[in-house]
Specification:
single chain; mainly alpha; two-stranded antiparallel ribbon; globular
Length: 593
């Protein structure tokens, strides 16, 4: 493979640093945070007949540093090739790919038990679920579960799995964790590796990855399998914690677990957000370990190429996928169409959308939600209405939510309200996320009073305010120019939530303070993010620096702070930092010296 041969030649020409090398053992060095396997660079590995992905992905990278050639480190040593791309990735942290990562975990403890069942069977009423969901505290949940067992109710494996599935589906992770802890205390219930993995996932989501990692030590050795560690890995990725994710991956290698597509996809997902230059390293590792790319792998690469404005490279990845015998599913097609929209290539986007629709729109019901979203991105009111008309007579909840958001994006607030009213009448008991879809419309259209009314309805109907609701509420006040109120809402969210507020929620307020040159409050939010468990990265530092620039305030010790967090400034960031560096040299300062 020519890309690897070039990599070998280039690396040989570079002076070696003090990195530790363990040849022929692809892993991450946690002491130096570098990728030290190098896949045995004494000579290039034998060419692969089928694995074209590395060549296709690396061949159109911009400059030698973009591929495996110049930077074979899996560390956090350099900024992304483009600050704009890094910021764009952080701003789209709720993307479909990342949602899939979470969904894979959400089903990890129920996928075996629910296999082959219909949606109706999986989502039917569960008495055990209701007992846990209706409890108001940890103690009441325990008492209610004890009472449930004493009354002779079913506590079979299928009933337990169904209850956990329902709690996760509603993102009631705190309740699910209470149930998991209670189950572990029951001596007559035999736990499996999947049960422990589910517990790891819930602890990570509710209490953080540090607590989840500590819990692994309490798991019996016979149950500390690959699924337990990959669950921790995925949650580290969810938090963009590069160091810990690399360390967990190393641990899995040290334990001799096989390298799986799931683990590699998690690394790809992480580096797609944090450092795209390392993606080629993961692809090389996959080739060495004979790990076949999945549709999710290709979707991540298509999104990465699209976000780098490399449309030709994106299309080559698609060609490679088809050459490997894989056909795009609706999710991958949706990702492709989105990237065409972002690139301003509306005709190509429409071609993909027509493929998704097929010859008969009604026969492709699974694509409706994506079609609503992407037609809204294209600004096509007629197409959004056409797709909504196709499902209006018997809509699904997800379709209603996407229609509400699509009409909201198109500034068609009345149409969004009509869909919400229909949804409210069809489903008497809506959850917080359903109200939040309408709240986001009011926030994006600066309709403060109507937004407050929705929140009031949620409270009256006993809805739980989750991270997405708080995020929409913060945006509602920011768009209305009430930054102090938005800050107050964030404070309440951090105190009341069993889960931490979203990264994007913090950034909404931090960016606003930065724009206004409010250094004091920008530093306050920056500190709260650290307290909340969000690792300081380029994105936060970039916004904080902007606060100092806009305030025209001198900046002390910023480079040291970056170094302490292992964030290395790019040339652009360094140039901006020089504007407010308190110790910069000027003609006057030289005279005074």
């Amino acid at each position: 493979m020519w890309a690897i041969r070039r990599a070998s030649a280039c690396i040989k020409s570079q002076p070696l640093s003090s990195r530790t090398f363990r040849p022929c053992n692809a892993t991450f060095n946690t002491t130096s945070s570098s990728y030290i396997g190098n896949i045995g660079f004494g000579g290039p590995p034998p060419p692969s007949d089928g694995f074209l992905l590395l060549r296709r992905f690396s061949s159109r990278s911009r400059g030698p540093q973009s591929s495996f050639i110049g930077n074979h480190s899996f560390s956090s040593q350099a900024g992304s090739e483009s600050e704009k791309e890094t910021i764009k990735e952080a701003d789209t942290s709720g993307s479909e790919s990342e949602s899939e990562s979470e969904n894979e975990l959400d089903l990890l403890d129920t996928e075996e038990e629910t296999a082959g069942k219909t949606d109706g069977e999986r989502r039917g009423s569960s008495g055990l679920f209701k007992v846990v969901a209706d409890s108001s505290s940890v103690l009441s949940a325990k008492n209610a579960l004890d009472k449930w067992v004493k009354e002779g109710h079913d506590l079979s494996r299928s009933e337990i799995s169904h209850a956990v599935f329902e709690l996760r589906r509603r993102k009631m992770y705190g309740k699910a964790l209470q149930m998991s802890e209670w189950l572990e205390s029951q001596k007559n219930i035999e736990l499996s590796e999947r049960d422990y993995a589910s517990r790891i996932d819930l602890i990570a989501k509710v209490r953080g990855t540090q607590k989840a990692e500590a819990y692994i030590q309490k798991i019996p050795e016979s149950f500390k399998g690959e699924i337990v560690y990959r669950t921790l890995l995925a949650n580290c990725v969810l938090n963009n914690d590069t160091k810990k994710a690399e360390r967990v991956f190393n641990k899995m290698k040290d334990l001799k677990f096989p390298v799986t597509s799931f683990a590699c996809n998690q690394l790809l997902l992480l580096y797609k957000r944090t450092d795209k230059k390392k993606i080629a390293d993961v692809l090389l590792l996959m080739e060495k370990e004979d790990v076949k790319p999945t549709l999710f792998t290709y979707r991540l690469l298509i999104e990465t190429k699209g976000m780098s404005n490399d449309i030709i490279g994106m299309e080559q990845v698609l060609e490679t996928m088809k050459a490997e015998g894989l056909e795009p599913d609706s999710r991958l097609q949706a990702a492709l169409a989105r990237q065409y929209v972002y690139a301003g290539m509306k005709e190509k986007a429409n071609e993909v959308l027509k493929e998704m629709e097929g010859s008969n729109l009604n026969e492709n019901r699974g694509a409706f939600s994506s079609l609503l979203q992407i037609y809204a991105l294209l600004g096509s009111v007629d197409d959004v209405k056409r797709v909504w008309d196709a499902c209006e007579n018997s809509p699904r909840l997800e379709e209603c939510m996407n229609a509400i958001e699509a009409f909201g994006k198109l500034k068609k607030v009345e149409e969004a309200e009509a869909v919400f009213d229909q949804m409210s009448k069809k489903w008497k008991k809506l959850s917080g996320k359903h109200y939040t879809s309408m709240l986001k419309v009011y926030a994006n259209n600066k309709m403060l009073l109507k937004g407050k009314e929705i929140v009031k309805q949620m409270s009256e109907n006993g809805c739980r305010l989750g991270p997405l609701t708080w995020d929409a509420l913060v945006k509602l006040y920011i768009e209305a120019g009430e930054i102090e109120k938005a800050d107050s809402v964030l404070n309440k969210a951090s105190q009341q939530l069993n889960m931490k507020p979203l990264f994007a929620t913090y950034m909404l307020i931090l960016d606003h303070y930065a724009k206004n040159g409010d250094v004091h409050n920008a530093e306050k939010i920056f500190h709260k993010m650290r307290q909340g468990g969000y690792v300081s990265r380029y994105r936060q530092y970039d916004s904080l620096l902007q606060a100092y620039i806009n305030a025209k305030a001198p900046l002390y010790g910023f480079r040291e702070r970056l170094k302490a967090d292992n964030v290395f400034p790019s040339k652009t960031l360094a140039d901006r930092l020089a504007q407010v560096d308190a110790f910069k040299k000027t003609a006057v300062s030289d005279l005074l010296d």
